[in-house]
């Protein structure tokens, strides 16, 4: 059956002038809603001397104060569990999720109402349809279905599209591979790291996924690697399939960018549902096309927790819509999300803030010195070693400490595995001034 | 109940858009009732959430629905 190329032809091809008119109208209404309903935003707006009536053109967005992760975390700590960020009574919520990692001891918690949750899958529909998912597809989700939002929205999007959904859930990698082959699925959704791991494990099982599976599309999310050309080439050869990158964040609940089936080397911004500003990370001044800057997102979706001018610290480079031949009028991020402006690391789809890791390590009095060491195993899988020295005289605490620290770190990071490694006393570097206990030994991505 | 004849950008609605918007407004009206059995009340809310997506995607409305528990 022939289908249209676009999920929403009306807005995906809207002339940019009209698109900006639409964004302005939604921005004004969103700010009015947030000011009237959300103590967090009312306080922020009042402190900045901003009122929604001051929005006369889209450029006036710069009058709106930024929302930062730190503001949000402070609100959560002051008024657990959700701070003063909720726009409506929690009784209207049908869904609870939290961020995959944290910059402190508390993750960001979010609630969604019925329409918000449906909107989350709607954004995935834009992306998945654009990448080529159709009702005839069967989609395997190599995903744990926990409280990390991950591929939840994509799961429901595939149902909405009419594709057959196969939830991988909590199974071994071997069991997942068997299902992928036996069920003849056409599409696999996974982080790039895990997609490579699946392929590697399949090889060990004597299965060549490129020839023995029917997978022709791999949906990638959760890590920048999905848009790194070398990784993508490796994945496409391994699976004998097209790979499409997407990126989202728990703070908005879904994806805001996706790679379409024309594979231009960039990811389209869903511009009728988001305003994506790219600003100089230091001066906060807008940067032009083809310049690196920080993503600042305003979401027109989740009304439960309005997200307005949220500083993501993501590093991006915007390019015009004409860069892609698909016909969409939506601009793109060349190379997807390219990295971070802060020290956050993405490890196997989970956010890791070294400062939060350090805070946990510091709770153990027996630890004398430590190093957080990121490395890549077999050129595929990112690993974190916590190298540490035990204080002289406290060596007997090592075996208990090793188990408990690994458990504490995993619990603070959605079950992510940390390798706790004991080093000889005096072998780790010492610092007199600014300590550098973080070593990232992973290869640098080439775009 | 008055249904708009233009989209958010002020363009006249097509015939199909008019029908989609009318269905959305009907669901809102039903969701506001408090005399429906749970099987109707909850499924209407599910349907309203779905129609919110269609009408929002097409630029026919941009509003919140928490007053209806949606």
Q: How would you sum up the global shape of chain A?
A: globular
CATH class division of the largest domain in chain A: Alpha Beta
Please identify the structural class of chain B as seen in this structure: mainly alpha
Oligomer: heterodimer
Average pLDDT of chain B works out at 96
How far the N terminus sits from the C terminus of chain B, by CA atoms, comes to 19 Å
Could you tell me the number of beta strands of chain A? 20
The CATH superfamily of the largest domain in chain A is ANL, N-terminal domain
Low-confidence stretches of chain B: none
Helix content of chain B: 40-55%
| Number of helices in the DSSP assignment of chain A | 12
When the domains of chain B are counted, the total is 1
Count of distinct strands of chain B: 0
User: Which fold name fills CATH's third level, the topology of the largest domain in chain A?
Assistant: Rossmann fold
Main sheet of chain A?
Answer: 12 strands, mixed
Q: Report the sheet-strand fraction of chain B.
A: under 5%
Our Rg estimate of chain B from Cα atoms comes to 12 Å
Biggest beta sheet summary of chain B: none
């Amino acid at each position: 059956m022939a289908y249209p190329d676009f999920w929403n032809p009306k807005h995906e091809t809207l002339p940019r002038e009209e698109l900006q008119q639409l964004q302005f109208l939604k921005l004004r209404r969103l700010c009015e809603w947030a000011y009237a309903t959300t103590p967090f935003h009312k306080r922020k707006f009042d402190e900045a001397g901003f009122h929604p009536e001051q929005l006369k053109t889209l450029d006036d967005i710069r009058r709106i104060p930024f929302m930062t992760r730190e503001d949000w975390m402070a609100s959560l700590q002051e008024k657990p569990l959700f701070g003063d960020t909720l726009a409506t009574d929690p009784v209207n919520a049908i869904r609870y999720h939290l961020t995959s990692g944290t910059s402190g001891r508390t993750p960001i918690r979010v609630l969604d109402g019925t329409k918000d949750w449906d909107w989350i899958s709607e954004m995935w529909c834009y992306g998945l349809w654009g990448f080529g998912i159709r009702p005839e597809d069967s989609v395997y989700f190599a995903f744990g279905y926990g409280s990390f939002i991950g591929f939840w929205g994509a799961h429901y999007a595939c149902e909405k599209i009419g594709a057959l959904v196969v939830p991988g859930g909590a199974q071994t990698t071997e069991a997942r591979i068997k299902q992928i082959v036996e069920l003849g699925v056409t599409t696999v959704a996974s982080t790039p790291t895990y997609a490579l791991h699946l392929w590697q494990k399949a090889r060990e099982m004597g299965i060549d996924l490129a020839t023995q599976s029917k997978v022709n599309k791999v949906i990638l999310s959760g890590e920048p690697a999905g848009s790194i050309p070398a990784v993508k080439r490796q994945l496409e050869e391994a699976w004998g399939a097209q790979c499409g990158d997407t990126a989202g964040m728990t703070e908005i609940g879904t994806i805001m960018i996706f790679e379409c089936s024309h594979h231009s080397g960039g990811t389209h911004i869903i511009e009728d549902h988001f305003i994506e500003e790219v600003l100089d990370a230091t001066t906060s001044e807008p940067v032009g096309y083809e310049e690196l800057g920080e993503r600042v997102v305003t979401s027109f979706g989740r009304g439960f927790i309005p997200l307005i001018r949220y500083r993501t610290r993501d590093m991006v480079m915007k390019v015009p819509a004409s860069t892609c031949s698909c016909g969409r009028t939506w601009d793109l991020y060349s190379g997807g999300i390219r990295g971070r402006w802060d020290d956050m690391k993405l490890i196997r789809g989970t956010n890791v803030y070294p400062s939060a890791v350090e805070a946990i390590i510091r709770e153990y009095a027996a630890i004398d010195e430590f190093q957080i060491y990121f490395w890549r195993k077999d050129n595929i899988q990112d690993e974190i070693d916590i190298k540490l020295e035990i204080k002289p005289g406290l060596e007997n605490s090592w075996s208990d400490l090793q188990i408990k620290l690994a458990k504490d770190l995993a619990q603070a990071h959605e079950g992510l595995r940390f390798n706790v490694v004991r080093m000889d006393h005096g072998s780790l570097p010492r610092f007199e001034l600014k300590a550098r206990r973080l070593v990232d030994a992973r290869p640098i991505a080439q775009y | 109940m008055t249904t708009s004849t233009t989209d958010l950008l002020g363009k006249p609605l097509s015939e199909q858009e008019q029908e989609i918007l009318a269905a959305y407004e009907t669901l809102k009206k039903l969701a506001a009732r408090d005399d429906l059995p749970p099987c109707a009340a909850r499924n209407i809310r599910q349907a309203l959430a779905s129609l919110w997506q269609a009408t929002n995607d097409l630029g026919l409305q941009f509003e919140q629905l928490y007053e209806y528990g949606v």
